[in-house]
Amino acid sequence: MPEIISRCRGCHVAGQNLERVLEMEPMPLAGVFCTSLESALQAPVFPLTWVMCQECDLVQVAEDVDDSTLFAHYNYASSSVAGLVRHFQDFASFLTARYESTDRLSFLEIGCNDGVLLNRLPSHWELLGVDPSDVALRASLNSVPYRLCNRPFSLDLVLENKWEGKIDVISGSNCLAHISDLRSLFEAVALALRDGGEFWVEVHDLDALLRGSQWDTIYHEHKVEWSEQSLLRCLLPLGFTHIQTIRTPMHGGALRICFRKQKSPSSSFRRSGHTTQLLKNLRHAYENRYQTNAALSLVNAQKSGQRIAAYGAAGRANVYLNQMQQLQFDYIVDEAPLRVNKFIPRVATPILPPHQLGIHPAQFCLITAWNYQQDIIRKNPQFTGTWLTAFEEE
Ligand SMILES: [Zn+2]
To answer: Most buried residue, 14, 171, 198, 338, by most Cβ within 10 Å?
Structure first.
């Protein structure tokens, strides 16, 4: 059984200040796909509880699955995902334009993965990447324009490298959801930045998730879900000022926020209650998850002996299928050869290639990758049944 966190990951306030906001069915790890039916049926499951910190509003998974278990299968290279490459091209142009007038700039990226951002930044900048993963190490063996520290970013690392007050700009994209001790990471960022230095964070936006009540993106690998509010609450007391917030479409809704390090800490601000209301809506959507039009159609089809299928075997399909166990999908299709012929953990749904939709016709096919709905329908004219989506578009 995983341990329950004893303090907030973002602000370190004690565990009794973490309020339970959603309890889901125990889940296998969403990043895992099983190679055999037996291993799928035996996949371990872990309780999944969302709590919100009363101090900083950070929403987080209470169960802390050990990182070696959690990320054993989670080793993808960002440069292999077309949408992500476009995102980082954009971000690199944005940063280049912003610091254009500076001739010498030291830029450090936390969680640099395979260098998808650093490779696109001006080569006359001093570029540093910090990332403990194998993906990062392998990529750095080629000739790259940056220096890699193949370790987690921490106070010790800053001290060992004598980075205190030396770095002009630090960025972290998509990595702040996967780190257990964020408060210590923020302290290390504050130590490494010079006065007036800037910290850019890109995070999935809790508000975007809550507006669509997308409970299928809640899983153990996403240890925390940030909102603009909770980032401000965690960073302002450490001596940062908020410079700007930009909303980007990455992963269905993301935040790009800039903070500047200053000499004296700024005052904090009041909580709004906004997140609490949206969380109530999410809990309602989750508790009524069998009452959506899609779920009702699937239940009826299943009762009358019709075949039902799903489309898109990503992490959120793992969540959906495991949280909707009254539905037994005959199969789920996916385009990625890496996933085909594997099984969804626990519910053991087989993953087949898309042409199976023509060979084993189903009455309904549920698009679990609902943000790619239009593309999927267009690419699969061989399917003659009815398409459904797990969540309605906003
Ligand atoms: Zn907190």
So the answer is: 171
CA–CA separation, 100 and 56 (whole Å): 35
Q: Would you list the domain boundaries of the chain?
A: 78-278, 290-389
171 CA distance to ligand 1 centroid (A)?
21
The pairing of strands 224-225 and 59-61 is antiparallel
Greater confidence, 372 or 236? 236
Distance of CA 347 to the CA centre of its chain: 23
Q: Which helix (H) or strand (E) holds 206?
A: helix 206-211
pLDDT band at 361 (very low <50, low <70, confident <90, very high): very high
How far is residue 300's CA from residue 292's CA, in Å, rounded to a whole number? 12
Query: Which CATH number does 290-389 carry?
Result: 3.40.50.720
Tell me the whole-structure pTM to 2 decimals.
0.89
Q: How far is the CA of 59 from the centre of ligand 1 (A)?
A: 9
Please tell me the distance from the alpha carbon of residue 227 to that of residue 35, in angstroms, as a whole number: 36
* Angle of helix 182-192 versus helix 228-235 axis, rounded to 10: 60
Ion ligand 1 contact residues with beta carbon within 5 A? 8, 10-11, 13, 53, 55-56, 58
- Cα(233) to ligand 1 centroid in Å equals 8
Instruction: Determine the distance separating the centroid of ligand 1 and the alpha carbon of 183, expressed in angstroms.
Output: 9
280 C-alpha vs ligand 1 centroid, how far in Å?
19
Q: For the domain 78-278, what is the CATH code?
A: 3.40.50.150
pLDDT digits (tens, 9 = 90+) for 188-202: 999 999 999 999 999
In the sheet that 240-248 helps form, which strands lie side by side, from edge to edge? 147-149, 126-130, 106-110, 167-173, 193-204, 254-261, 240-248
Query: For residue range 232-277, what is the model confidence (pLDDT) as tens digits?
Result: 999 999 999 999 999 987 777 899 999 999 876 665 556 667 788 8
Which pLDDT score is estimated for 76? 67
What are the tens digits of pLDDT across the range 93-143? 999 999 998 888 999 999 999 999 999 999 999 999 999 988 899 999 988
